[in-house]
């Protein structure tokens, strides 16, 4: 169950959080922001060459909202097109964990759960840590991932391939499948993430995505980003 839907990888009092956003790897021109549940800023950092950003907690404990925010020069590697794609100032992607932890991934799945929890850039009125756990766990079960906040295997170029079938590799493949769905719908993964979030936020159900579509997209993504030695195992995963 992914450690209660967002509580894994914790320590008693972590001093910083390493945040790894992924729609494919982000470039160094992108900003990561950490917020308290009330929307107050904890800190901001640029993404480094490894696709991650480390932000000091400055003694804060409690629920954390992590966001990657677009801007001038900010791009991500689109696994379906094999090209860098702009992530403009009108775009952001969010994740919410119910307590501080050492590492937080931000991706399409975490953004789906956040859509059910956020009011703007703060936790919606009446939402509690229990609600955060419930929404996060719901998305993890929906997409069958053990921990959507874990760092997926990074894909930042056409030469980057999944060489194994670890949980990090499986998560990366599922994110790549969503990029494939976006391409099939003549859009980009950032726009698809926003559309899926709007869909889910309304009633907690996804009308715009079904299991069959995801299965086909997983199979289409396998030859694009996975080494041949993993193809059989990943095909079984899709099934």
Tell me what the structure shows.
The protein is an alpha+beta fold and 239 residues long. The chain is built from seven helices and eleven strands. The protein has helices at residues 2-6, 108-115, 129-143, 167-184, 189-203, 211-225, 231-238, and strands spanning 16-21, 31-36, 41-46, 53-56, 64-69, 75-78, 83-86, 92-97, 103-106, 118-119, 122-123. A four-stranded antiparallel sheet has the order 3-2-5-8. It has a three-stranded mixed sheet with strand order 4-1-9. Strand 2 and strand 3 form a beta hairpin. Helix 2 (108-115) crosses helix 3 (129-143) and helix 6 runs antiparallel to helix 7 (231-238). The longest helix has 18 residues, at 167-184. The radius of gyration is 16 Å and the shape is globular. The model is unreliable at 1-11 (pLDDT under 50).
What does the secondary structure layout of this molecule look like, with pairings?
Blueprint: H1 2-6, E1 16-21, E2 31-36, E3 41-46, E4 53-56, E5 64-69, E6 75-78, E7 83-86, E8 92-97, E9 103-106, H2 108-115, E10 118-119, E11 122-123, H3 129-143, H4 167-184, H5 189-203, H6 211-225, H7 231-238
Parallel strand pairs: 1-9
Antiparallel strand pairs: 1-4, 2-3, 2-5, 5-8, 6-7, 10-11
Helix pairs in contact: 2-3, 2-5, 4-6, 6-7
Number of helices: 7
N- and C-termini, Cα separation: 21 Å
Mean pLDDT value: 90
Widest beta sheet: strand line-up: 3-2-5-8
Oligomer state equals single chain
Structural class designation: alpha+beta
Largest sheet: 4 strands, antiparallel
> Could you list the spans in which at least 5 consecutive residues all have pLDDT below 50?
1-11
Give the percentage of residues in beta strands.
Answer: 15-25%
Radius of gyration, Cα only, in angstroms? Answer: 16 Å
**Helix and strand pattern:** HEEEEEEEEEHEEHHHHH
Residues in helix, %: 25-40%
Shape: globular
